[in-house]
Specification:
Bound molecules: pyridoxal-5'-phosphate
Radius of gyration: 21 Å
CATH topology of the largest domain: Aspartate Aminotransferase, domain 2
CATH class of the largest domain: Alpha Beta
Strand order of the largest sheet: 2-8-7-6-5-3-4
CATH superfamily of the largest domain: Type I PLP-dependent aspartate aminotransferase-like (Major domain)
Shape: globular
Number of helices: 16
Oligomer: single chain
Structural class: alpha/beta
Largest sheet: 7 strands, mixed
Length: about 375
């Protein structure tokens, strides 16, 4: 008998996990009949770049036309910003598209993709979905163990994924450690350095990634407009990589991958220095408040270089998140990312964070009074 379509799906695809997005706020509000605060997807709580939105509105009426499929103006602008060639810039449908395309170019049966445990799940998905075997190196104190990752590289390792700063732990590695690590990576292994949260990093010794790219072309740096520029819904990001790699990724991408509206918004957002500065400053102040307040309430935050805080909450982390949700605050339990005892809190506005603290205080007080909940 002929096979069904379901039976034709390859085994490596059946085994792939589904990406679990944060709960949509409307769903929670409808279910619980409350006004909710969403602090679960590391979005920018101050909104999109106003300059970006103004530019987007201006081109909205051109939507009957296809956009510039080669994203020339934006590539030229980004190239000038980083002092690289426009041929070394790839504009993607979010940086997510680049995570996948890099693996599509380089992986196949018999190849290995390496990443860390406790990092952004789409890295592993990209490796496995493109026929490679994935290897995970354990973390050390919620940070990448770069020396161990260097040890794990073999001559079949074609691609390495690193997020710096990392999601979900919020930690970052410095330039010296990264350069030492790179000295162990041969020219036939691509290092994908995902810098989605780079604007929020405070440690003074962050790697000078673009300088390093100029010296070694087996580096692909990923940036996004989803975080500090506040345009996650526009779906636009970019990569800085070797012209040959960019050219190969261009052959695989869907034509017109990035809308004209998103391109116009990104072009203008790059000049919105005031918005970027405000977002970084507000994030720094509120991140500190969250870190201090959750510690005061008895949980254990990890120092963050991002727009979220990773918090150790013990075996009841998931139950705490569920009760927090009933109080109208959506945060992310991290069991699905390999941390069953941790919670990730995205930094919100001052008002949202105030609500977060009041709700957490209530949840923890209630739990103290209800020992039966701790048995769950
Ligand atoms: C480490 C990391 N890389 C990439 C992305 C995806 O970003 P984009 O919206 O540009 O696809 C995220 C999103 O949260 C992320 O945390």
């Amino acid at each position: 008998m002929a096979k069904t379509i379901e039976e034709l799906i390859p085994d490596y695809l059946r085994g792939l996990p589904v990406y679990v997005p944060g709960k949509p706020i409307e769903e929670v509000e409808r279910e619980l009949k409350i006004h909710a605060v969403k602090l679960a997807s590391n979005e920018n709580p101050l909104g999109p770049s106003p300059k970006g939105m103004e530019a987007a509105r201006k081109v909205l009426n051109d939507s009957n036309r296809y956009p510039d499929g080669g994203t020339l103006r934006l590539r030229e602008k980004i190239a000038a910003l980083h002092e690289v060639s426009p041929d070394e810039i790839f504009i993607g449908l979010g940086s997510s598209e680049l995570i996948d395309l890099a693996a599509r170019v380089l992986l196949g049966p018999g190849t290995i993709g390496l990443t860390s445990e406790g990092t952004y799940p789409p890295f592993s998905t990209a490796i496995r979905a493109n026929g490679g075997a994935v290897e995970h190196v354990p973390m050390c104190a919620f940070a990448y163990d770069l020396p161990e990752m260097a040890h794990a590289i073999t001559n079949t390792t074609r691609i390495l994924y690193l997020a710096n700063p990392n999601n979900p732990t919020g930690t970052a590695f410095g330039g010296e450690d990264f350069e030492r690590f790179l000295s162990h990576v041969a020219s036939d292994t691509l290092v994908v350095l995902d810098e989605a949260y780079i604007h929020y990093a405070e440690r003074p010794d962050m790697p000078q990634s673009v300088e390093l790219f100029r010296e070694r072309k087996n580096l692909l740096i990923l940036r996004t407009f989803s975080k500090v520029y506040g345009m996650a819904g526009m779906r636009i990001g970019y990569g800085i990589g070797a012209a040959a790699l960019v050219s190969a990724m261009n052959k695989l991408r869907t034509p017109f991958n990035v809308s004209g509206v998103a391109q116009a918004a990104a072009l203008a957002a790059l000049d919105d220095h005031e918005h970027v500065k405000q977002c970084i400053e507000a994030n720094r102040a509120e991140r500190r408040r969250i870190t201090e307040e959750v510690a005061r309430l008895g949980l254990k935050p990890v120092k963050s270089e991002t727009n979220f805080v990773f918090v150790e909450a013990g075996p009841e982390a998931k139950a705490i998140c569920e009760e927090w949700l009933r109080e109208g605050v959506i945060v992310r339990p991290l069991g699905w990312m390999g941390f069953p005892e941790a919670i990730r809190i995205s930094v919100g506005t001052k008002e949202e964070n105030d609500k977060l603290f009041v709700a957490l205080g209530r949840v923890l007080a209630k739990r103290k009074g209800k020992p039966e909940l701790t048995a769950r």
